[in-house]
Design a protein that fits this description.
Helices cover 22% and strands 34% of the residues. The chain is an alpha+beta fold.
Length: 382
């Protein structure tokens, strides 16, 4: 191999937090998995990951973060440079893809254009030498499952993009795999159809109970569909969690910035009570109470983030005894249909984003505004 097995201390280990609310046994385990293509840099570093039986797990991250390489190693299209992948406790690292019995759905559908829809869906059964009578029944059932009953005699070119994606999904499910792997399967669809397919996929997963592993760079897509999300960056899992916890309590600056919108404040850590509560001191001298996520020491330069919907925008000056408030000015008001988004100038900071509900009196650009942030929603990072 290009790279020898690295010592455990050579690279930071990805040790994702496992929520206690889900206790399904692991169907797949990555143990110390590494991957390099050039023998120098690791695309995936010492990956430890348990994929639970029956869950919908999304691998989320920017381009080059290692998420797709992880999926390809699980599918068998790439081999780990080091480490082991287990299925039901048995090593599959050297098992070829066609013997892993996994369904696979790609972004480009990968349908055979010269074959009918029914023949495309039947293909995995044909290569497995399933009897013809069984093939017809299972193809009909799979097409009904994805709401394409009666369209088996059409060709892929006669279908819309969303219908072709459903055919690819039916083909991945028709042989009843224990695991379905999806690599950005909705990326080629328009926004409205993509959102519709997200709901359909989530419902289909609920009905079937099959384990889904889904790769995406779209954080909204991951949050909409998944039971858990693993956020990748630089070959490591930065955080793995159930979706609401991932959004509300990101474990580091990268996750806070990548998953959802955030308003960011730069400053210095002031007082710290050693129980997670701390004080953020802004360059203006304003002080805000928050949560010390990474146990930063007082005096350190820090970055704090808060979700825009967790900020209260007040158009009248607060009382003297009100706390956790900073003064700003409204630069822009953007209408989003179900809410307004304010872009606010804060002294010494990047522009702050605030989401406010629709009301009788809309804020106006140029108005002063006071931003109140509850301490539990202001997360302070190293």
């Amino acid at each position: 191999p290009l790279v020898r097995r690295a010592p455990r201390r050579a690279f930071p280990r990805s040790t994702p937090e496992q929520p206690k609310t889900l206790s399904n046994p692991a169907l797949v385990q990555f143990k110390g998995v590494q991957k390099t293509y050039d023998g120098l840099s690791l695309v995936v570093r010492n990956l430890d990951l348990d994929i639970r039986r029956g869950e919908f797990l999304s691998l989320l991250g920017p381009s080059g973060s290692g998420k797709t390489t992880t999926l390809m190693m699980l599918a068998g299209f790439e081999s780990p440079t080091a480490g082991e992948i287990l299925l039901d406790g048995r090593p599959i690292t050297k098992t070829p893809p066609h013997k892993r019995n996994f369904g696979m759905v790609f972004q480009n559908y990968a349908l055979f254009p010269h074959m009918t829809v029914a023949a495309n869906v039947a293909y995995p059964l044909t290569v497995r030498k399933v009897p013809k009578a069984d093939i017809d029944k299972r193809v009909a059932r799979a097409l009904d499952m994805v709401q394409l009953g009666g369209k088996g005699d059409r060709f892929p070119s006669q279908l819309s993009g969303g219908q072709q994606q459903r055919v690819a999904l039916a083909r991945a499910l028709v042989f009843e795999p224990q695991l379905v792997l999806m690599d950005e399967p909705l990326g080629a669809l328009d926004k409205q159809l993509r959102e519709h397919m997200q709901i359909e996929l989530k419902e289909l997963h609920r009905q079937l109970g099959v384990t889904f592993v889904y790769v995406t760079h779209d954080q909204g897509e991951a949050l909409t569909m998944s039971d858990r999300v693993a956020v990748f960056n630089d070959g490591l899992i930065q955080q793995i969690d159930i979706v609401d916890r991932l959004y509300e309590t990101p474990s580091n600056r990268f996750v806070a910035g990548f998953v959802g919108d955030s308003t960011v404040l730069e400053g210095t850590l002031g007082a710290d009570d050693h129980h997670g509560r701390c004080e953020l001191v802004l360059p203006t001298g304003e002080r805000l109470a928050g949560v010390n996520v990474n146990q930063v020491q007082p005096g350190s330069r820090v970055t704090a983030s808060v979700r825009p919907e967790r900020i209260e925008a007040m158009l009248t000056a607060p009382a003297a005894n009100d706390s956790n408030i900073i003064q700003a000015a409204i630069n822009d008001v953007i209408y989003f249909g179900d809410h307004l988004r304010l872009r606010c100038a804060v002294a010494g900071q990047a522009q702050a984003t605030v989401k406010v509900p629709l009301g009788d009196q809309a804020p106006q650009a140029g108005q002063p505004v006071w931003l109140r942030i509850a301490p539990q929603f202001l997360r302070v990072y190293a």
